[in-house]
User: Fold this.
Amino acid sequence: MPNRPAYYLLSLGCSKNTVDSESMAQLLDAAGYVSVEKPRQADVLIVNTCGFIGPAREESVRHLRALAERKKRNQVLIAAGCLAQLWGPMLAEAVPGLDGVIGTRRWMDIVTFVEQVRARRNGIAPQPLYHLPTDALTVGEDERGARRVAVQGASAYLKIADGCRRPCSFCTIPTIKGTLKSRPPERIIAEAQQLAAQGVRELILIAQDLTDYGNDLGMRDGLATLITQITRAAPELAWIRLMYAYPGAVTDRLIEVMATNDKVVKYLDLPLQHAHPAVLRRMRRPSNVEWVYRTLEKMRAAMPNLAIRTTFIVGFPGETDEEFEALLRFVEEVQFDRVGVFTYSLEPQSPSAALPHHVPAAVAEERREALMLLQQRISLRKNQQLIGQTLPVLIEGYDAQQHISVGRTYRDAPEIDGLVFIEGLIPTGEFVPVQVTGAMTYDLVGKVALLPTTVIKHGAAQEAA
Assistant:
């Protein structure tokens, strides 16, 4: 039996990119390729790049160059993903030795593309092969049977849509991904059922704009409807987590579904980007800050222990001291649970690149540090308020030598939020009631609680059985 061709796939960037990588890997596996962990073992080297901001682009180029420099004569190197779509032939100029460039919108063509690149490489083709359609993303129609999921332990990301129709001036996602394309609900529900059947405990729904789901399918309140359908179809799932909600799109029905559905964790990622109306208008974002106050008040009334994550951009073109001070006051007043802060990244292909009065990098960094320092105090105070409470924790691993286990509460999304460090060794994937005994800025320390005790389940106090 001839040896199966091997591939090495490096996935960079966000969880949405991870799902794309997993989908490509499924197609390659089905076509007879075998995955390997080390580049030197592979016939095909693939990097699923990130191109969202400058540092991510630099990381992608750095990894591609490192592989190109060590590439053997019989190997081919392919750049896939966001930076491939954004730069196209420019990426081959930045990375000598690149054999192929495939964009985000036709990831499902990876097997055919790999075969074409390998055939050309056998003939010592002088130029890379490009596959960069700009309007060919057909979500749900020709995904070639690949699941749009990425499983990580007891948790799994499930992509429900691709692309974005929002006009944010700082963002290149519409250029990279195109406009919103929602996946058919029946496909999503079937994948949720498969994940539940294989033992996944936490399902994390992701998209560029989760709250826009179904708009292109003629659905109203599509996300709320989808959540209800998933929980009915896959009751084995313990947690359903929502990431990437858009300001102004959190409807009353979505709040009701979140508040009344026990499977939906009381957590929402709502990237606001700023709090001064003038900056938000320059960002081409919703600028009605009063809506934010009203909606947060409504959500917290319905879900008193709701954990809210948001992100802000500081140093956006034209941001004045007064506008930044307004952002600081807003964060102090609202008291978010989790905050990510980024300095503005100049994206040449975004509308904001043409704006005047760019903020010096040093000033932007000072503002980032000031906002993070403020949020660290808020986060520590909120964590300290949890001391003495008991929360269910999903165990993600343990250290046998240190005799501690590590997990997450409903307040913490994987990879971006805090952890809980627990005395003793607990099997991965288990839910255990943990009494919080200590608090740090982002993380908690605890011990397994003795039952019966009061357990905070998804933000609501209940008596443990």
Q: What stands out?
A: Confidence is low (pLDDT under 50) at residues 452-457, 460-465. The radius of gyration is 23 Å. The first strand starts at residue 6 and ends at 11.
